[in-house]
Amino acid sequence: xxxxxxxxxxxxxxxxxxxxxxxxxxxxxxxxxxxxxxxxxxxxxxxxxxxxxxxxxxxxxxxxxxxxxxxxxxxxxxxxxxxxxxxxxxxxxxxxxxxxxxxxxxxxxxxxxxxxxxxxxxxxxxxxxxxxxxxxxxxxxxxxxxxxxxxxxxxxxxxxxxxxxxxxxxxxxxxxxxxxxxxxxxxxxxxxxxxxxxxxxxxxxxx
Amino acid sequence: xxxxxxxxxxxxxxxxxxxxxxxxxxxxxxxxxxxxxxxxxxxxxxxxxxxxxxxxxxxxxxxxxxxxxxxxxxxxxxxxxxxxxxxxxxxxxxxxxxxxxxxxxxxxxxxxxxxxxxxxxxxxxxxxxxxxxxxxxxxxxxxxxxxxxxxxxxxxxxxxxxxxxxxxxxxxxxxxxxxxxxxxxxxxxxxxxxxxxxxxxxxxxxxxxxxxxxxxxxxxxxxxxxxxxxxxxxxxxxxxxxxxxxxxxxxxx
Lengths: 207, 253
What we know:
Chain A is mostly beta strands. Helices cover 0% and strands 47% of the residues of chain A. In chain A, the strands form four sheets. Chain A has a six-stranded antiparallel beta sheet with strand order 2-1-11-10-7-8, with no helix packed on it. In chain A, strands 14-13-22-21-18-19 form a six-stranded antiparallel beta sheet, with no helix packed on it. In chain A, strands 4-3-5-6-9 form a five-stranded mixed beta sheet, with no helix packed on it. Chain B is an alpha+beta fold. Chain B contains eight helices and twelve strands. In chain B, strands 2, 3, 4, 5, 6 and 10 form a six-stranded antiparallel beta sheet that branches. Chain B has a five-stranded antiparallel beta sheet with strand order 1-12-11-7-8. In chain B, a hairpin with a 2-residue loop joins strand 5 (112-118) and strand 6. Chain B is globular and about 50 Å long.
């Protein structure tokens, strides 16, 4: 079903179903849609409703606008707005309303492809008052430590790396298994011990 | 010494239902402190589109949250281009996971465009047909490539850009987040200049108004991003407003 929603200065006046082939619009009573508007010609325009719907200017004095542009004859698409004098006609095509929405046509995903294996990793505080507390590493980057010293663990695919810290002006860089980390990122293995901000953390990974 | 490495920016964004859709599936977000700006255009029935777009934006923010603090930006020798890529892949995983555990969201997806400003550079990332434009020295340039069927047809010579503007296949996109386990993300990094303006927008803007009209709107009100955003959105609505319209403008000061 195709229809027109007619508005005047933002207020909906009426809804008109396009059930016949030609629907005329104008000031004269002989039209299908009569507009009481001095800027509208006696016979101003016509909606032609066939396989597609068209708007046609019937040699009016002031013309018609489609989506803000003056046109003579145009095919209408769902959502188009035709302006005749001070009235607006919004064209609604219920049949295509759903089609217009974005559709993804991605290349076929290989069925045989294995699903990403869920790898769970965390760091567990090894000593002190919070011993045993664990921090899950479930995001691409996880920050460890506090304002005095920080370290970042990065997840890439199934692997975890301790990021190099370069600009740290507040003393030594964090340690991995007792050695200060340098300018390279370090691949973490199960049981590795990270020291950051005077806290010892044990990295654990399970598949 | 801690130096904040985000360049000085001015940002404003706006999202609107448009005139045809009864709800908004776009989602936008920006942070002035970090220069992280994200726009997503979701799709999928039963309101799943807005679940996908919001999840994409929040996942990316979450993924980068910990590395965008000033002390990390300064202390860590981080490849932010790689970080952006990882964050988008993470968002794809999160959307897939959500769809698996919420059957009503099955089949949802979303486009994404984002920027991250760092030092004197900007990093762009894109999946789908949302766009990023750069306005520099009186010239407007689209800096992302649409992942759409129409763009593929243009690239392969089946269609001219002129013909593409009137194609009825403009709604077919070739990449999105949430439609497969793997996702191909376009990521690039380039230098910024003072007075650059970056526009992130959904196809609700770029399908409705031409690049020339975007250009004119930016020329007219580039000093007032709020006004420029409002002008762009109202232009898209004047020209039909077929889809949700979202714009974010970022100016380098």
